[in-house]
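Continuing the batch. This is chain 6 of the set; chains 1 through 5 are on the previous pages. Same settings as before, nothing changed between runs. Recording input and output for traceability.
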Amino acid sequence: MKDITPMAREAGAQSNAGPQGGPEALSWGPNGPAASSSGNAMNDTNLTRFLGGTPTAVFIRLVLVSLIVGAFLMWLDVRPADILRGVERMINGIFHLGFDAVHLVAEYVLAGAAIVVPIWLVMRLMNYSGKR
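Output for chain 6:
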């Protein structure tokens, strides 16, 4: 019987070729196809995909963009504390607006209930006594 291992390795190397022709994550081990590295390759790929590049490159880009935006904000005389205070005021405004709206709706419900509940109660009592 003929040993087909060399042909299988050659076919496997051709099918695992990446866009540049090099091998991808799979390689041939002593027991057949095996991952060339540990599970870190999958995590690095997911992290890189999530970040949009390698962590180091993304960090450098964020530092440079932060420097440019920070210089522009300092030129406009906007300080980080001013931004945080503005965000706090906005959240408090939404918070108070929300509870004022809830209070207004509660007043409407109570005003309507003052009319609806007695009428409902009278109708229920009339239907109850009529069925006997």
